[in-house]
Structure formats: C-alpha cells, structure tokens
Amino acid sequence: MSRTGRRTLAASLAVLLALAVWAGPERLRGLAFVVRAAGMQGGAAESLARWRTVPFDVSDVRVPTRHGPVRARLYRPLERRGRTVVLTSGVHADGIDEPRLVKLAGDLAMGGQWVLTPEPPDLLRYEITPRLPDVIEDAAAWASAQPDLAPDGKVDLFGISFSGGLSVVASGRPALKGRVAATLSFGGHGDLPRVLAFLCTGELPDGTRLTPHDYGVVVILLNVADRLVPPEQVEPLRAAIRTFLRASHLTLTDKALAEQTFARARTLQAELPEPAATLMGHVNTRNVEALGPLLLPYAKAFAADPSLSPARSPAPGSPVYLLHGAGDTVIPAMESVLLAEALRPHTEVHQLATPLISHAEVDRQADAADVWRLVGFWSALLDE
Fold first, then answer.
1. Phi, psi of 308, rounded to the nearest 5 degrees
2. pLDDT tens across 347-358, in order?
3. Residues near 334 by Cβ (< 8 Å), separated by ≥ 6?
4. 120 and 60 in one domain?
5. Which of 43-57, 59-73, 113-127, 134-148 shows the lowest mean pLDDT across its residues?
6. 98, pLDDT greater than 70
7. What digits encode the pLDDT tens for the residues 174-197?
8. Which sign, positive or negative, has the C-alpha torsion 150, 154, 160, 163?
9. Per the count of CB atoms within 10 A, which of 22, 50, 202, 218 is most buried?
C-alpha cells in the first residue's frame, strides 16, 4: 500500500474504530482483518490489526485429486475461530509461495481460521484449463472430510483472480453440496470468453472502453500459442513468455532481478524464428493493440468449456461473496456485477466493487465510507 494510501486510511480509521465499537465486536473482527490486509503499521492501527490474533503453525501437505496429488500448505492457528478456508491463488508461477497469497493466508490464520492453500499445477504454468476447477473441488472435498480441518464437515472456498471464478464453479458441483459454507471470488471472472474478449479489444459488455492490462493479454497468448505458430515453435515461445511473466512478478519484490529477467526475455525473442519472434516482440513491448486482434479469433474457442465460467455452470447453493477492485484492468469489476445477476435467482450473493482494491490486493486510498463498506463485506464473510 502506498504511503499516501496508508495516511488516508489511517485518518479514516479513527472514525471507523469508534463506529466499530458502537456496532459490536463482529465489525471489529472485519476491521482488524482489513487493517492487517492493508499492511498498516504503528500506533492504533497496529494495535487494531493485532486484535484477538493468535499464533499459527505452517506445514506443507499433499492433497489427493483426480489429476494426482498436489502440493498444499496448511496454516493452523493455535486457537480456532471460524471455518477452514481453502484458498487458491491466481495464475502465478510461485504458486503457494507467492508473497501476496502467503500474506493473505497469514492474515486469515492470525484471526483464528485454518487455511489450506492447494497448488494446482496448471496455475504454475500460467495455463487456464478445465483441470483447475476439478483440483479446487477435490481439495475442498478432501478438506471437508478431515475432522480436524472441518469439524462440522464444511469449509469456506476462497479464490483469487481467475481462481475466484473457478472456485464458484467448484462450489456449485454436486460433490460439494452441503460441504461449502461460503465462497469468495476475489477479483474473479463470471464469463471467461467475455473477459478474454475484453482483454483483446478493451471493450466492456456495456459498450464502454477500458485499457486492458497487458498481463492478461500475454497469458492468453501463452494459452493459444499452439494456434498461432508451427508446432516446433510452441514450447520455445511459451518459455519466453513465461520468462517475461516472471519478470513482471519480480517488479514487486526485486527490481534489479526483474530487469535482468526482462533482458533474458528479449534475448529469447532474438533466438526465436518467425512468426514466434514477432509475437514475442509484441510481448516484450507490451503491445496490446497488436496482440489483441491476433488473439481474439482464438480466445473465445479456448475459453468455451462451461467449466471455466461460473456464469455457465450450476450455481452454488451456499452464499457467494464477490469482491472486486473498481478499476481492475485484468478482470473488470463489471464481471462481478454480471455474475451476481446470474447467480441471484439461485443463491444468496454479496457483491462489492471498491476503490480500495486494484486487482486482488488492498492497496489503494479511499474515504471512510469505502473502508466501512469493505469492513462490512469482510465481517459478513468471516462470520459465515
């Protein structure tokens, strides 16, 4: 979170703390979580972030799925409050080691919730496939059957970015009926073909325009590379793309190493034959305008499987929470609005778009009303 954002949120917290005390401890829990998630430190904010927190242990486990066992991590607080959360990351090569996922899991565990973070292998390769909701479903089914993880036989299902929408898909499947207490899609999609069309064109469903983030476009290219280049060029092109994506992630933690990795992506481009070299050139220059029209004819076919879209899959029977950054340019906030409309005839839905969030992390400044709405959202979810 930026220094300006922390100051703005801190100014709001003085008022919010008074309101939370008046409203009762149920809001204090949500407020404390939001303060932890925002990474605020010092003074009253730090005291609030530690409100009723507990130590937790972390261990690696293996979770059985129909596609083979997957690596997972279990965060186990010394005092349990609330249900176990099965939390799946977005599309990222670091998987369960991704720093933002680790922080979110830790923030939840400090509040007393056990957290299981499964690692679907396809996410590590930046691939969006029908295997992903299978793995999420199987991980939730396994966790809900473990007496120590789910004493009442139920878990919460949280997913970040594309895993948010896929968690909603998994939650609606027959095998999880009665086993999921609530599902959170954090910056997730409703209809994957619609999102990919936006990333390729910049056009939203209502006809307005928004400049898409190049990250999403590059992920599409990786997934449809076999439609665009000869077979012998597919894997070298994908290796170069993954190098670029890795460099993009490193900009958050190690700018010097990120620059070295970007340079490696440019070197790999120079070693590619045509047409892969031209495509990789568009990646390295973040040329969304050139890539979008090339990818659009293939994007919808790649995303056509209904199991990749919650709006095209059976709705969950338990409550669904849809949280989105108002200005998200990877998966637009309109996706949560449209998904809420599709789900509401079948299930209870809570939907919030907030300026406090970018894509899938709390890192923006906003006024007290925005913070209070976010606190209310998390308070309701954590109390399910």
1. -95, 0
2. 999 999 998 886
3. 204, 205, 206
4. yes
5. 43-57
6. yes
7. 999 999 999 999 999 999 999 999
8. positive
9. 218
Which of 3-17, 239-253, 261-275 bottoms out in mean pLDDT, i.e. has the lowest? 3-17
User: Is 68 within a domain?
Assistant: yes
Place of tokens 């906003």: 366
- Asked if residues 169 and 342 have their Cβ atoms less than 8 Å apart, the reply is no
From 285, 301, 317, give the residue that closes a domain: 301
pLDDT tens digits, residue range 276-292? 999 999 999 999 999 99
With bands split at pLDDT 50, 70 and 90, how would you rate the model's confidence at 363?
very low
Task: Quote the CA–CA distance of 249 and 90 in Å, as a whole number.
Answer: 12
CB 150 within 8 A of CB 80: no
What tokens does 262 get?
Answer: 């970007």
State the residue range of the domain holding 103.
Answer: 56-191+309-382
pTM value is 0.92
Which single residue is written with the structure tokens 């047409």?
Answer: 275
257 is a domain residue:
yes
Same domain, 208 and 285: yes
**Rg of the chain on CA atoms, in Å:** 21
Contact of 197 with 319, CB cutoff 8 Å:
no
Report residue 152 as tokens: 């009442």
* Same domain as 176, residue 60: yes
Neighbouring residues of 318: CB distance < 8 A, sequence distance ≥ 6: 171, 180, 181, 182, 183, 347, 348
Rounded Cα distance, 65 and 68, in Å: 5
| DSSP string for 287-351 | -HHHHHHHHHHHHHHHT--GGG-GGGSPPPSS-EEEEEETT-SSS-THHHHHHHHHHTTTS-EEE
**Beta strand spans in the chain (E):** 56-63, 70-77, 85-88, 115-118, 155-160, 180-186, 320-325, 349-354
pLDDT band at 43 (very low <50, low <70, confident <90, very high): low
Alpha carbon distance 359, 374 (integer Å): 15
DSSP assignment string, 169-198: HHHTSGGGTTTEEEEEEES--S-HHHHHHH
Find how far residue 180's CA is from the centre of its chain. 18
Per-residue pLDDT reduced to its tens digit, 139-167: 999 999 999 999 999 999 999 999 999 99
Among the listed residues 151, 58, 46, 38, the one whose alpha carbon sits nearest the alpha carbon of residue 106: 58
Residue with tokens 């950054």: 325
